[in-house]
């Protein structure tokens, strides 16, 4: 619900946080490092890519849903991206509808090696076949020429070019389907400078596919992949001069569908978890470099001359990825990636949001950018799914009510066999009959897989909005909140709650058996606060109490012990902030703080609380934009900020790696 603030004088209370021992630490970094993305013409995975002469070249790739194969499910275009502006894509002649094709550069030409295609038509049984094709593209003549074919068909391999020689390792030979695949137990090399180039066999001490190849200091790394028994983290290193193999340290993460690139004497490699690592000669382990904003596998990692890397397309939770992410390893300080999209609907603020499978499910909200706009037409029932993989939106089932300020959470999303359900609880809006907007007690359920809304037979014990929620050990805990009803009169319309409700979704019978009010109440009635669960403790920061008074006290409830404690207050006392738990720490962002003039202004800082030290640190003094009302979530190793609160009909997404 938008802030319901009466025209009263707000008394600022001197906080214990002003004492020297508990004073929040100053900002470590005055600005966030910017990281950008470039959109591909389409989402794709398992393709070939190479960098040469100021361009990134992309060929082939799978475009259909995962594990769905037919002759129409491949990228048929050969394209390149200019590194001068990082936005201009050009279509080149000679596209190849191949998956897991390798593309390398010899400094002058682009060479594609092998790959897999499907010969079956859509709707028929897959007929998957590896190929022996090898061809070279000259950007000056814009023509392809055939090179010696592979001795046997090969796909799910990788290739690298070193000193004019193309090396190929890993892979298998598909002849109709993977049940008949022959795994390759040897590698190949083609000397492009020979008078009569021909492929020669190289013994390899492994049998793996979906490997990643890269070269550094004249040696070739074969990282990760899959054996017939499962995923592998193994790293084998080949010395062409000595024709010898050695073992390198294993990848720190899952190596299936990884990509690697050699640059400045180091080999850089990705993992399925979205991490970028590097390794150099004589090092005993891989060095963590940075993380990807959009974790993915079956991508391509390419190095750019200025020390940057391009993580291109791939696939992850929620499907194929449609962007190039520009990475800058070995730098310190928070990193921010900004994305602006056309707003798919009319709602500007107070929307409900679920995060599931790399997508935002956004629904309801208020259609005005101004506070306190509570006419019937100001409330929305629109709902959309925003894919973070493709950065695109689609309409989903309309919300059954026009409402804002839900409390939302999901259940079953971490269980492969459970129903995936999103809950929109309480909220603020008009009842079917009524002359003013009120708080509500309904609980709406959304099937994340079937795209269907339904109203639960269970209701809250009382109408609520602006409250907090935590899931712990199978139960759901509701903290504080507001019951607002204009019909009770001016003095009684605001009922702030100090109750903790424990909701047992599996309990049967009356709602009274499902909802139990705990003996332990909030130390003070509170609403519009930042709240989140970390290690079994629910943290409450900021917000508003009775008579519109700001609260700078930070309360912590230990669910197992049923005990309250406090932590120091952050530098900013905020109204309607977001509190997010990420990687063992808490992050306070958004909301409004009182200015020196006594008015409210959007707070653009990000503060971090470390439970280990008991201290707050301002990690960013300014996120660089006034987003107004926001939603915030943990997204892999980043904070994800969502906001549509502007007059430009734009949707802004900020991904911040602290």
Features:
five-stranded mixed β-sheet, elongated, 64 strands, 658 residues, disordered N terminus, mainly beta
Please describe the topology of this protein.
Blueprint (H helix, E strand, L loop, with lengths): L32 E3 L1 E3 L8 E5 L2 E5 L18 E5 L6 E4 L9 E4 L4 E4 L2 E3 L9 E3 L3 E5 L4 E4 L11 E5 L2 E5 L2 E2 L1 E2 L5 E2 L2 E6 L7 E5 L8 E5 L2 E5 L2 E2 L2 E2 L3 E5 L4 E5 L11 E4 L2 E5 L4 E5 L7 E5 L8 E4 L5 E4 L2 E2 L2 E2 L2 E5 L7 E8 L9 E5 L2 E5 L19 E5 L4 E4 L11 E5 L9 E5 L2 E2 L8 E10 L4 E13 L3 E5 L2 E5 L2 E3 L9 E3 L3 E4 L7 H4 E3 L12 E5 L2 E5 L12 E5 L4 E5 L6 E2 L2 E5 L2 E5 L2 E3 L5 E3 L3 E5 L4 E6 L10 E5 L2 E6 L6 E8 L1
Parallel strand pairs: 1-35
Antiparallel strand pairs: 2-34, 3-4, 4-5, 5-6, 7-8, 8-11, 9-10, 10-16, 11-12, 13-14, 14-18, 15-17, 18-19, 20-21, 21-24, 22-23, 24-25, 26-27, 27-28, 28-29, 30-31, 31-34, 32-33, 35-64, 36-37, 37-38, 38-39, 40-41, 41-43, 42-43, 43-44, 45-46, 46-49, 47-48, 49-50, 51-52, 52-53, 53-54, 55-58, 56-57, ...
Secondary structure: helix percent = under 10%
Number of domains: 2
Q: Structural class of the secondary elements?
A: mainly beta
> Could you say what the CATH architecture of the largest domain is?
6 Propeller
Mean pLDDT, to the nearest integer, reads: 92
Q: Give the CA-CA distance, first to last residue.
A: 29 Å
- Rg: 28 Å
- What does the overall shape look like? elongated
What order do the strands of the largest sheet run in, or round the barrel if closed? 1-35-64-63-62
Name of the top-level CATH class of the largest domain: Mainly Beta
Strand content: 35-45%
